[in-house]
Amino acid sequence: MSGQRAAAEPYATRFETEVTAIDGRRVWLERSHFYGASGGQPADRGTIGDVEVVDVRLVDGEQVHELAAEPSLRTGRSVLCSIDWSFRMYCMRAHTASHVLYGAARRLLEDVSYAGFEIGEDEETVRLGLETSSPVDDETLLELDRLVNRTVWESRSVSWDDVPVAEARERDDVTFDETTADDAVQKGRVRLVTIGGKDENGNANGSSRLRGGFTVGGGGDPWDVSACGGTHVRNTREIGPVTILGGSCADDITQIELAVGPRAIEHRTAEKRAAFAATRTLETNVDAVPDELERVADDGTDRRRPVRRGGGNAE
Hints:
Elements: H1 5-8, E1 14-23, E2 26-29, E3 46-48, E4 51-59, E5 62-67, E6 78-83, H2 85-108, E7 113-119, E8 126-131, H3 138-153, E9 158-164, H4 165-170, E10 174-175, E11 185-186, E12 189-195, E13 207-209, E14 215-217, E15 224-227, E16 242-250, E17 253-260, H5 262-282, H6 289-299
Parallel strand pairs: 10-15
Antiparallel strand pairs: 1-2, 1-6, 2-5, 3-4, 3-6, 4-5, 7-8, 8-17, 9-12, 11-12, 12-15, 13-14, 16-17
């Protein structure tokens, strides 16, 4: 399981603890709720005392907090720490969204396996790497987008617990690559993050206990169960707006790029603006745009309206 308190208690953002060591701008704490950069998720932001935290790294299993300036702290003294909630919540939403996307990919693609992920520190994009024999074309991207947003809408529970490594290896429903999931393994146990299933009415409901002691959403098969040491929201509805931006393939790895939150909203707005422009230019409704574009391309006609030099459309 993850040794980071942030993964176990992702909603905790203010805490008081003792300073155990200081080396220039580097600080060690007796107890830390800061997330140290690991597994594709960036480090938390925030403050220790009144000094900004610019990085948090795991060194020999301990969190090392790098500050923007040398602090006026003393070892053995208590200090008040605060985590930037906005960035923490963004990472929680983005990380959970990547698990939802992987669950969708397993349902659409052949021979798919996890090949890493990355949350951009600029809060612009999230990338999920996949190894698959299936081509990821535009229709596949659209279906992935639909499934991800459907899962967000269904308000599926998200939970985490740990099981013995040997048990995780034996389970077909668990995504567990020991070469990339070292941040989720500790003392012979692995931390599993589960996005729950739905009840017989197609709705997410309360939790239930499955073998191994971990909790999932109510009846039905879980959407995704993955070894992971990162921070997550408690329910898929907390992810908010998600949109698939595109996909690319290099060195046999397919990279799916998605946006979460404000960037997703901006992208959807741009897409809708383009769709509205297409309907006006082609004089058709949005559902008929693809067929109309194909028809125009096939017969060589140009349905675009002439534009006056003044910029207005000619009547």
